[in-house]
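Lab meeting minutes (informal)
Scribe: AK
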Amino acid sequence: MASEWNWRVDENDGLPVVYVFELDSATQSYGLTGIFHDRLKVAAPFPLDIDLTAINRRRP
């Protein structure tokens, strides 16, 4: 059984970029619901609010 939610975390200029996907039950495929650069704020699958700029930059 697939998870209803899938998150992918990449980085851009040393900072995280979070892609959020939700499973479409009709097609059984994931659809993109948001791309977050500075702040990740979602209500589902649970309330979450993260300042992505506060995370340490990745060194080159």
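Next up, CB showed the second protein from the same session:
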Amino acid sequence: MDSDDYWEKECVEECIKAFAKCEEQGKNVEVVWFEFYFLTNGKITTDGNWIQIYGAEERILTPQEWAQKTYYFWFSTLGLIDFKFLKSIKLKFLNEVLYEDANFGIMLFMQAQRIFRLPKMLYCYRIREQSTMRPTTIQMPPAYLQSIYLSFNKNITYLNTYNRARSLFLLTLQIVDFFNSLPQNEPTKIAKQSFLPYYLKQSFYIFDFYNDPLELQKQFYKLLPYMDYIKPSFYQKLVIHCPISLYPLLTKFRAAYLWQRDFERKFRRWWKSILKCKKRLKSYSNFE
């Protein structure tokens, strides 16, 4: 659990009751999955929670029923897991990446037989500035990112952007390997169709960098057999069909394009501000 967040005091009790209720019905579940809410500067909001997708009723879900309703998922602190089940599947988080709870949740739910939906908001996701989930540029990167930090000449902005792309790429490799390890049945087919398009599209971000200190671009070929799950853009098609030897040239063109795009956007914002100032000055002069 993030140090900024907390469970409601009745959280564990409600989960245990849910496990017991399912057991009484002869339908043992491996996971009880509850809801969350955001607390931002003292204001409570429920935008983005799972009730909008899975409804507000208590119910038991199979992995297939769960997977066919969403394209992205995360799970770590939003439920209670049968420890014997968790130990039997030997599931662990992928170390030293962002968004590790996404893969953990998918791999957990896909290996469960039943998941109990408890649509009670028992987790408070507290949003505030300078929290663990909103680090400032003043904060130093952790030890495992120090070598990457140095390769970007201690530019924290580049480091953060690369770290996000690196994390998404490594998570994509892991989730592809996981799906391949499952029986290739209907639930697995549905899960691939639901989740792989999002993951594969995110994996292209690693090509936004001419400087790729971990040389992850060279591992992109591992994802090529799965590109039928997406409708690639023109640039993505270039990446897919580009020989590895030409990746440095491709990323140079990509970097130039991104620089030009960002410059154009900044110029447009600047020009709009100039026009607004001129309009205000004109209104003031007319008033006088």
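CB comment: Strands lie at 6-7, 31-40, 43-45, 59-61, 79-81, 115-127.
No objections, moving on.
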